[in-house]
Amino acid sequence: MTGKVPSFSPGSTVSSALPGYVTLCLALQVLRLVSAQFTVTGPDHPIAASLGGEAVLPCHLSPRMSAQSMEVRWFRSQYSAVVHLYRDGQDQYGEQMPEYQGRTELLKDHITDGRVSLRIHNVQPSDDGQYKCFFQSNRSYEEALLELQVAGLGSDPDISVEGHQDGGIRVVCRSSGWYPEPEAQWRYLQGQLLPSASKNISQEAGGLFQTEIAIVLTEESNQKVSCCVRNPRLNQERESVISIAELFFPKVSSSTVVLGVILALLVVLIVPASYCFWRQHREKDKLQAELRWRSAQIYAVDMTLDPDTAHPNLVLSEDQKTVTYDERRQDRPDNPERFNTYPIVLAANRFTGGRFYWEVEVGDKTNWTVGVCRESVIRTGKVRLTPGNGYWTVWLRHGEYEACTSSPRIPLSINVRPSRVGIFLDYEGGEVSFYNVTDRSHLFTFTDTFSGTLRPYFYVGYKEEGKNTAPLIIFPVPAQAKGNLCP
Predict the structure, then answer these.
(1) N or C: which end of the chain has fewer CB within 10 A?
(2) Does the predicted model carry a pTM greater than 0.70?
(3) From residue 151, how far is each of 75, 126, 201, 385 by CA, in Å?
(4) How wide is the angle at C-alpha 47 spanned by C-alphas 43 and 52, nearest 5°?
(5) Phi, psi of 210 (to 5 degrees)
(6) CA nearest 71: which of 58, 88, 94?
């Protein structure tokens, strides 16, 4: 038996193998594309952040893979609204929105595992809302949606009395600096809600909210209620309490009706009626002044004296809250901040905005001056204390209490000698008010437009009745005064 050996041609071999080779390449390409796919995952709940604090928005890839060579973009509603951009292995700030410049940081400690977080510093109201976390490789891209919820507590409610209305007293409660929009209500101290006469919530510059809520209190209202302002997002609130004396409410009785008839017939009774009206008006003014003083106490600040400004004859206590005049000149370095003509010292506190309150113990001193001055006032020579020269002060000289206004000075009405004086500065409101803490009465208020830096001012005086002058003492304001308007 004879056989024939088959012959093979090289061309026929390549031709028969080509389809399998193409199929293998396509399969490998598909496998590569599939392996490059990923998803982006963020938290399944909103991220909470406080105003002025920090917010951290986490985001990661699934499955786990390195994102070092990817583009990682954080943006708001539009792709071009860049909050933070990472590309080519480094942060890129050229496309970043101006409102986020200097406030963002990409946390890359775990970027090789596909996990990154965006940190936002100094959180603002405008940061509230949705963000997108976007990853892009050479072959694929995905994104995830996150939500940031910003919240902030506002100021303690400020309560003021604004006169009679509908047989009662109209009382208004105001508070500002809230985010988001707060809830405000009046209620008894036991918790029962009271209907408000009016309510207004408005948005301030910068996106914060302020609220104003009014109530008309009658004798049936129990005269002791609280104003509560609540942040629903934080479930936290601020509260202030007010108590109005029974004498403050107008009374109508049969005897009042009879008296009205008699007054119509007998002119002589006008005098006692006028006295009653004057007494009621005085009680109202007294209550209004005390409410203003209580409201000012909310802004109490810790204050110390600045030894670099103290006249060489002044001695400061170790805690720098008491200053005394001494005839012996102290050995102090000469510097342009020091007062060299009169026994004056300034506080170390500097104010360029905001509201502040402090108290000064004057005791039985017969010669003193307290208030506020510009930091730039001259330290040598004779200067008249007027607002035009940068001083907003009151003083005691030769038994007379006066406000140091432009000529002439204004005498102050004093019923009870003040052993302690309270000073309240509202920089933006253009107000410096003085209170007699001894009887809780209002002494005087300057109104002006402030600019530059203001500092608390203290004039100690020279020798009194043959002995060294008594000290001036910065008195700590009781902590319980804050946020509580009860007498």
Answers:
(1) N
(2) no
(3) 21, 11, 16, 45
(4) 150
(5) -125, 150
(6) 88
Asked whether the beta carbons of 104 and 120 are under 8 A apart, the reply is: yes
Residue 267, Cβ density class (10 Å: 0-12 exposed, 13-18 middle, ≥19 buried): exposed
Render pLDDT for 211-266 as a digit per residue (tens, 0 to 9).
999 988 877 665 678 899 999 998 999 998 887 654 455 555 555 556 655 666 66
| C-alpha distances in Å from residue 460, one per residue of 346, 437, 444 | 11, 19, 20
pLDDT tens sequence across 293-317: 888 888 999 999 999 999 999 999 9
Given a cut of 60, whether residue 474 has pLDDT beyond it is yes
- With tokens 């009205």, the residue in question is 260
Contacts of 278 (CB under 8 A, 6+ apart): none
Which run of H or of E encompasses 84?
strand 82-87
Q: Where are the beta strands (DSSP E) in 218-266?
A: 224-231, 236-243
What pairs with residue 149 in β-bridges? 48
CA–CA gap between residue 198 and residue 11 (Å, rounded): 97
* Residue 412: both structure tokens together: 């102050």
For the packed helices 254-265 and 270-297, what is the interaxial angle rounded to 10 degrees? Answer: 130
Backbone angles phi and psi of 130, in degrees to 5: -95, 150
φ, ψ of residue 391 in degrees (nearest 5): -125, 135
Q: For residue 324, how many other CB atoms are within 10 A of its CB?
A: 17
